[in-house]
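Table S2 (text version). Query chain:
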Amino acid sequence: MSYDPEIANRVLAGLRPFPVAVTTVDGGVANGLVSLSAGSASIIPEAPRATISLTKYNKTHDMVLNSGVFVMHMLSAEADQLDKSLEILMTLGGSSGRDGDKISMLRTGTGETGAPILLDAHSYVEARVIGTLDVEESSIFVGDVVASEILNDGQRLRIGEAWGKLPAEWIAQYDANHHPQLENARARRFGEKA
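Corresponding structure-token output:
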């Protein structure tokens, strides 16, 4: 047996096919981001839980940590919803909440916890955090689902499909914005500037 990070990343990437838009509210301020690290956290059908992993570099991380609430949204792949899904992905994934309000650019409602619901998403689950695991560069949040809805039925958007439809200039900007986040994560994990 051997360790090859390329092989490990290929295996793990297959576990994250869906981009998830995460929103939250803290002290009356709303924010959000796009993550590939989210999922179900309970086997009890009558008591569902959701999990998200957020890097500590992101403002949304600190807001979920402080407020204890988040909404996990799936995006739609349906032809009549795809443009809205890409708009959500580019708005929440294209810049930091530290640079200004991203949520007001999207069509939203207010959830049970006060967190914003993205009305053009495919579906969502809203949760109250019941446990947090600190994993150096990230925190994994587990929440009891308090509300959920399918807003636009049909297929959910996969990251490969989304990435293939995003403008090249947006992808270049995303890559540039992602670099400091990656450096921050390496410094937190390895204890030095990577």
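Notes on Table S2: The CA atoms of residues 14 and 176 lie 24 Å apart. The domain at 16-158 is CATH 2.30.110.10 (Pnp Oxidase; Chain A).
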